[in-house]
Design brief:
The protein has about 170 residues and is mainly beta. It has helices at about 55-65, 75-80, 95; strands at about 15, 20-25, 30-35, 35-40, 45-50, 65-70, 100, 110, 115-130, 130-145, 155, 160. The strands form three sheets. A seven-stranded antiparallel sheet has the order 3-2-6-9-10-5-4, covered by helices on one side. The chain has a three-stranded antiparallel sheet with strand order 1-11-12, with no helix packed on it. The chain is globular.
Length: about 170
């Protein structure tokens, strides 16, 4: 069976879903969900996020040189989805969705209190990748809330998400 090339990436699902929070030079915060995300280096720790160039998130990262990768748990699904709405630049998706901002430890962008883990990142590079830009971030601080009952959201496509359920081991 041939795959529709416009939806080829769905065979790589489910994918980790993150909520990237940023701030612009005027202090306006922003958050947007992404599922084209992957670790690219462990030493030094580097993460890659693919995003379209029109995102306020990318503009803020370019302005300040930093961002937070927030790992949302299952309890954040409706708020995560609310952050995907196109709001005018300067209007905070974090506040509009009812999430709470917290000060990050090493960068200017805020982290989101309700997340189950946070990676504070400094912009390393941007790489053109077709209709998306690949943003590489050096992880300068990482923290987890240690609440095991929270399961990270995994994106399948569109409005479909799933949660980790079963662990299998290779033999």
């Amino acid at each position: 069976m041939q795959l529709d090339l416009s939806k080829w990436y769905r065979t790589l699902a489910p994918r980790t879903t993150v909520l990237v929070s940023t701030v612009d030079k005027k202090g306006n915060t922003n958050a947007a969900p992404f599922s084209f995300v992957m670790p690219v280096s462990t030493n030094p720790p580097v993460i890659a996020i693919a995003m379209v160039s029109t995102r306020h998130t990318l503009a803020n990262i370019r302005e300040t040189g930093d961002f937070v990768v927030n790992i949302p748990g299952e309890k954040m699904l409706s708020q995560l989805w609310a952050c995907a709405r196109p709001l005018p630049r300067g209007v905070s998706e974090i506040k509009e969705s009812g999430l709470i901002e917290e000060k990050a430890s090493k960068i200017s962008s805020p982290r989101i209190k309700e997340a189950i883990a946070w990676y504070e990142c400094k912009l390393r590079a941007e790489i053109e990748g077709g209709d998306h830009l690949i943003v590489l971030g050096d992880i300068v601080a990482a923290e987890s809330n240690d609440q095991q009952e929270n399961k990270p959201l995994l994106h399948i496509g569109g409005t479909d998400f799933c949660l980790p359920g079963q662990t299998v081991k290779a033999e």
